[in-house]
Amino acid sequence: MSVIIAGERSGVGKTTVTLTLLASLRRRDRLVQSFKVGPDYIDPMFHQHVTGRPCRNLDPVLTSEAYVQQCFARHSQLSEYALVEGVMGLFDGIGHGQEKQKSTDFASTAHIARLLDLPVVLVIDCSRLSGSVAAIAHGYQSFDPRIKIAGVVLNRVGSDRHLSLLKDSLQPLQLPILGVLRRQDNITIPDRHLGLVPTAELPELNALINRLADLGDTCFDWQHLLPLLKSKPLPTFVPSSLSTSFPVRIAIARDRAFNFYYQDNLDLLQQLGAELVFWSPLEDAAIPKDVQGMYFGGGFPEVFAQQLAENTSVRDAVKTAILRGMPTVAECGGLMYLCEQIINFEGKSWSMAGVLPTSAVMGGRLTLGYRRAVALQDNLLVKAGTTVYGHEFHRSHLTLTPTQPLFETSRYDCDENMGCEGWGLPANVHASYVHLHWGESREIPQQFLKKCRKLASIET
What we know:
Number of domains: 2
Number of strands: 23
Structural class: alpha/beta
Strand order of the largest sheet: 3-2-4-1-5-6-7
Helix content: 25-40%
CATH superfamily of the largest domain: P-loop containing nucleotide triphosphate hydrolases
Shape: elongated
CATH topology of the largest domain: Rossmann fold
């Protein structure tokens, strides 16, 4: 069956509820596959830390409705239980195509529930309500008859008396209460300017997960939940064959500064014949040997700017490799690393690789949203005129804009122009604030590896 954990709005605790379920299932030695609705990178890190399996993003904007269905079928069939964490409130989405004026729930949790035909467990923040919980639950239960609400989880319940009032109010709805989480003072996941602090920066994370598992053992109605979580038999999904000619080695920067990667992107590189070599611009003394390409994902280079700056041998090696023609993809945080400097929130400047003649300046303004991006020139990843769909999420801006930008961008859900962005000079570089998921755009990794193989043939 499998279920989606949804919130009645953002901030109600659906990530805590999801992690509590996952932690308790793993304590029982259950094989669990998790999924996350939307473009988020950090929540999936927590999922993977708990389950030991890469979490998969389900996002029809970055990919397609068909890809979401295929991705869920492919990965859920390999596990005993499957669990999807939603995004924002259940019906919070965006306009789409000709439906812009008719519907605003495209890419919402409800949209994914309909696509996958999954029931929803609704998390309600009860900290500031009692009898009104019934009105909230009834509204969500009746708003869209295509959505099946399997039950509710009552979060942040204050006392036995509070719980009694909530139960009495919900009783006429005959809506199962699948979990009750009391207000917790010892379970807090720290956050900062782009959301939760990533797992690699939390030395006490395992202790936190153990506390969540303890909580999960007692707060859920497992008799009713386990059958819902059980993965239903699905037709075996056989991925299309991909060319694996002439293998190449790709250096993937992955450490506390760079860790925003869609697992599907990494899988595609491997399926296309790439050997992935993970390394750390923070800790390593040099880039990996015998590589023909580099990939710098997003992350928090601004938090570790001093340590990145002090690793001068790596900064110099990255610049030298790029100037000698090594194909390099750099997204968001990776783009910032290729700049001359990062200027942090305190105004302190730190030298970076110096490939791009601009600096990244941290600020209070958040740039957030899906983007439609049209390539203005042939570049490392796509041909001129190609339209791709991505996501921006950052609090930095560049001091100079490129004279020959990669993309003209606009908001996905309307025609509002967001300007031109992205660096493609040197020609072997693709540096952009726009995060791309390659699941429905396999020509992107194919083009990247084609350039890497060309470099490898020159070297040999």
